[in-house]
Structures are given as structure tokens and as C-alpha cells.
Amino acid sequence: MRSLLLLSAFCLLEAALAAEVKKPAAAAAPGTAEKLSPKAATLAERSAGLAFSLYQAMAKDQAVENILVSPVVVASSLGLVSLGGKATTASQAKAVLSAEQLRDEEVHAGLGELLRSLSNSTARNVTWKLGSRLYGPSSVSFADDFVRSSKQHYNCEHSKINFRDKR
Predict the structure, then answer these.
(1) Where is the Serpin domain (predicted)?
(2) I want to staple 51 with a disulfide (CB 3.0 to 4.6 A). Which of 28, 69, 89, 129 is the partner?
(3) pLDDT of amino acid 32
(4) CATH classification of the domain holding 150
(5) What is the pLDDT of residues 24-47, one digit of tens each?
């Protein structure tokens, strides 16, 4: 029998996070987690929708027995592509996220907020560590603005590597 796996935490992403819209400070109970802004909630919904679409497309392949799709990783990866890409590449990444109508800064701030919210072990009563590292050839320098913005929004580290070394 064919076994399909979609991590339950990610299945609940749309329902759990999309409903978390920021409330005025007076309405929030003391000690409760900050709610997501409308932009971040929208990006959470769209990320979950994208992940389900990817899952359904991969599930059509009869040779595939187990599938794991992380909406957060897919969305943040596309966000990084959008951040570092120019013109067509950046707009295509935003289109895959269904975020064409959002300004670039709204996309990056919203995805960053979503990542911080999901990684907040105190508010979520879970321990979930996300790591992101971008490797580039040692002969290329990352643009300072990209490094700053990718660390700020995506907590992405940057490393140079010698891709020609076969060790």
C-alpha cells in the first residue's frame, strides 16, 4: 500500500497561523504571543496552499511512497530567491508565492514575521529550530544589502565554499 506522509505541523499551518491576526495591544492578554499581521497571515495561507499543491503534484507519481513538504522552507526559499533575484526572477518567485500584489518589503517582512512566530518556542510551547544557510562559490561575494536583509528577514547565514574541491 502506498504511504504518503505530510508532516502534521505543516498541515495545520494554514488553519493555525492564518487565524492569528494581530489584535490591538489592549485586547491581547498579558503574556500571550503576538499575533500575526494580516500580511504574514496571508503569506501563511498562501504558503500552505503552495505546499499542498506541491504535495498533490508529487503524490501523482506512483513510485513515490513518502512525501514531506515544508511550507515554511518552500516559502522562505522563494523569499530568498525574490530577495536576491532581479526583475524576472524576483517576480517569478513572488508569483509562485501568490504574492505579486505585495511590495517586496511586505513579502520579506511578512515571511520573516512568520518564521519568527513559528520559531518562538515560548509562545508555541514547542522546540522547533529552523536553520538556513546559503552557500556560494569562494570566488563570489554576496552583496552587503542581500546579506543584511536575508539575515534580518530569514535568519539566513552565508558561507563561501570551494565547489571544485572533491574532498
Answers:
(1) 48-166
(2) 69
(3) 42
(4) 3.30.497.10
(5) 444 444 444 568 999 999 999 999
Residue 60 DSSP one-character state: T
Rounded CA separation 29/140 (Å): 49
Please tell me the total count of domains within the chain: 1
**Domain-embedded: residue 7:** no
- Cell numbers placing 101: 500584489
**152 alpha-carbon distance from chain centroid:** 13
- List phi, psi (to 5°) of 145: -65, -40
Q: Is residue 77 part of a domain?
A: yes
Confidence of residue 51 (pLDDT cuts 50, 70, 90): very high
Asked if residue 141 has pLDDT above 50, the reply is yes
pLDDT tens digits for 76-85? 999 999 999 9
* Cα dihedral 113→117→120→124 (10° resolution): 170
Range of the domain at 49: 38-58+67-122+130-161
Residues 6+ positions from 72 with CB-CB distance below 8 Å: 10, 13, 47, 114, 115, 118, 130
Q: Is residue 115 part of a domain?
A: yes
Looking at this protein, which amino acid is placed at residue 6?
A: L
| 143 residue type, one letter | A
Q: Which of 19, 25, 24, 23 is nearest to 41 (CA)?
A: 19
Q: Is residue 167 part of a domain?
A: no
